[in-house]
Amino acid sequence: xxxxxLAPFEEPVPPVKYGGTELVVFNLAEExxxxxxxxxxxxxxxxxxxxxxxxxxxxxxxxxxxxxxxKTRVALNxxxxxxxxxxxxxxxFDIIHNHFGWQPLLFENTIDCPxxxxxxGTLVDPTEKLMHDQYRDSAFISISDSQRRHGPNLNYIATxxxxxxxxxxxxxxxxxxxxxxxxxxxxxxxxxxxxxIAKKTxxxxxxxxxxxxxxxxxxxxxxxxxxxxDQIIFIGEVxxxxxxxxxxxxxxxxxxxxxxxxxxxxxxEAMACGTPVIAINRGSMKELxxxxxxxYLCSNIDEMIDQVPRIxxxxxxxxxxxxxxxFNSKLMAKRYLExxxxxxxx
Length: 346
Fold this sequence. Notes:
By secondary structure, this protein is of the alpha/beta class. Helix content is 34%, strand content 18%. The protein contains 11 helices and 13 strands. The chain has helices at residues 20-34, 70-89, 126-134, 191-200, 216-223, 240-248, 265-272, 285-288, 301-307, 316-326, 329-344, and strands at residues 2-6, 38-44, 52-57, 95-98, 115-118, 139-142, 156-159, 178-184, 204-210, 232-234, 252-255, 277-280, 295-298. It has a 7-stranded parallel sheet with strand order 3-2-1-4-5-6-7. It has a 6-stranded parallel sheet with strand order 10-9-8-11-12-13, with helices on both faces. α4 links the parallel β8 and β9 (204-210). α1 packs across α11 and α7 (265-272) crosses α10. The longest helix has 20 residues, at 70-89. The chain is globular.
């Protein structure tokens, strides 16, 4: 099958540090190539892939000096998208798999082969909701069943869970003595609550997280004053090696979510290392975590605090096994191929 994967251009594929969507696209491309498919990746020029790479932006747009202005960033993304559409229409592809967002839907009628869009967000944002609803009859894939709650009228052809290369996450059954928080610094992810949990349970907390420009004020006002470098440690964005080291040596990953998380790669990455997750039961968490077996699903922060002393009851081998059986990248690729076949009428 001849497949075009359209990635976001803000980060490279795979991402150097933070970048969930880009990592998913990378894992999918690698697995599809291994399976013998003819795969073209449309992405930024600093991407690395076993597929054929088509450069749609010279480098990750977030890193370009010319893209420091938000309006310029938007313009460069559309310029890259125009390049992608040109390549798609001249590429004789069997299917286009859109991971970019709603914007390619604007050009769907000009594309001469089927296109399916994987939704990577929550669909709560008014613009996202408006634009996806206007193209509700297009083909969509959700990354969790719970994600559909905020876009119930879209034409879903499948739910495909994100997958990771489990072998790249080393297992550890003798963790250190600290809790971990991994992801983005933003109110939705609940970093201040993670700090509260650590302090009330007298645990060290290591925070590895990206701070986007839009969240800098939140970080400086609410998070940074709580970082003491002793009990509460902030190490910023980390690469894969540092991420694995932090996760595998943690007693637990904290996910004190304040939004309906559509998936949350950090949770399966932690479990792949054997590290259980203590999470607020919102969004996809009940689809990723088996309560009392691979972590704890909680209704509020007080319940999370109560579960910290009980984390030793969780079998770390069971955590890794759960990810290997349900969230590996090969399984993800197989399920996407089934969805492609459904869309193409095979």
